[in-house]
Amino acid sequence: MNTRLSRALASLLMVLFSLSPVWATCGGGGGGGTGGVGGGNSGAGPAPTVYKVPWKIWEARTAPQKGLVLYWFPATNNEVKSSPMHTSRILTLMSSQCVTMAVADAKQPELQKIVGDSALPVAVLTSVDGSPIKKVDSNGGKLKVSDVEKAVESEIKQRESALDEQLKGGKEKAKAGDKDGAIAMLKPVAEETCLFPKKAKDASKELKKLGVEEIGSIPDTAPVYDRVQSARIEAVLRQGLRAEIAERYVTAEKLYRQASEMDPADATPLRYLGEVYRHHTGEWDKARVVFNQILNMPADAVSRAVALHGLGKMTIHDGEFKKGLALMERSVEAFPLALGYRNLAVYWNSEGDLEKGNFYTQKALALDPKDPYNLVFAAVFMAASGQGDEALKIARANRNLLPASYNLAAIYAQTGHRRQALALLQRHFFRYERYQAVRAKEMMEARVDAVFETLRQDSQFLALTSGADGKLMMPMPMKDTRSMQNHR
């Protein structure tokens, strides 16, 4: 898709949404799989990316209150998009243990003291009050992610050694009968539940012997940071992703589970596993267990976002619309994913709120204006608003995008191309989807989706969707749709 068309699409959206009819259900073509981050094509090649560091734009109002902050000050916008700083297992794990990942503009006055006189790009590890601890300068204009990992690991190890000494001192004081002195030394260790869960648990046990209750909930395990073992876990996860992309879902499930068992404190393999169950095999009971497991452990923001989104989608399909909406809103608050924004757009358009539908569609496009999946998704709205020629240009340019078959069918259906729409739905249900449990849900969503209004009485369409699970209420005629949706 050329850049000019991408820009034109983005600029047209505000006008298009003001004209669009109410049309969407909360399902069908929203995407998923590949850990909830890719649009269906991610992970190709010999070494696909499996870890996504949850960098967030720094804002003073959302500054963390505990732990550490790793600031990344890039030199250019292109660096932000393509830097290897996005794909570190070590940094992803650390983000789940109170090390906030913040990408920031060095020109902001309140951050200039952190950057100092360093040339960009630069990474700086600080305390939560902004006091610099370690700085990693670039070499030849490039910032090496391995250098950043080592700097953070070094600080963590130093702090861990200090806690070891404090824990040892507390135990010695307890043995000597100095209860107050022991408590004073052990309490600060027990409070380090996020950065050092094992030390905190040990200190908490000692405090309990002294009559002090445990301080909060403490995880049973800490992530595996050993470089050799970490590389093995990442390799198994990559094998799983390659299997998933090749549509070998049983193999992918086994490999994702294996990676999770290698490090039970790592949430990333679980988000891949949960998405296989939710999106590919339709085993929603298993998906719910996995997603709730993520939410009940220290997890990186990306994994939490994927878990919340998955639970939200399933909850909406089961008829609990407001509860599902709340889960999806929490998802994009945890971390902004195109998947979450797209499905929020679908939800609000199904409820007749075109302004919110527009807002979330533009949010998805802003994350990656050139992403084919985002473009196809937005083109569905274009077709609904009478911009059929532009929508068809996008559909034809992305005809081979298998995971977008449902949305491609929606474009063709709304522009009067019945045969192509049915062919793409056939491709979606029986080539892309491999499990009847998923087909049953998505056939139901197609039957109630207003983008297929012109096909609802079509005998071939009814035969194609005959396996629908019946969980969603069939809509009234289009002229009455808005009132129905506003009261459901």
Structure notes:
The protein is mainly α and 488 residues long. The chain folds into three domains: 3-40 and 236-486, Serine Threonine Protein Phosphatase 5, Tetratricopeptide repeat (Alpha Horseshoe); 56-143, Glutaredoxin (3-Layer(aba) Sandwich), CATH 3.40.30; 153-209, no CATH class. Helices cover 57% and strands 5% of the residues. The chain is built from 22 helices and five strands. The chain has helices spanning 3-19, 77-82, 89-95, 112-115, 145-175, 179-190, 197-209, 227-245, 249-262, 268-281, 284-295, 301-317, 321-334, 338-350, 354-367, 372-384, 388-397, 405-414, 418-432, 436-448, 459-464, 481-486; strands at residues 56-57, 68-73, 99-103, 122-127, 132-137. The protein has a five-stranded mixed β-sheet with strand order 1-3-2-4-5, covered by helices on one side. Helix 8 (227-245) runs antiparallel to helix 9, helix 10 (268-281) runs parallel beside helix 12 and helix 11 (284-295) runs antiparallel to helix 12. It is globular and about 85 Å long. It starts with a helix and ends with a helix. Residues 1-29, 39-44 and 478-488 have low confidence and may be disordered.
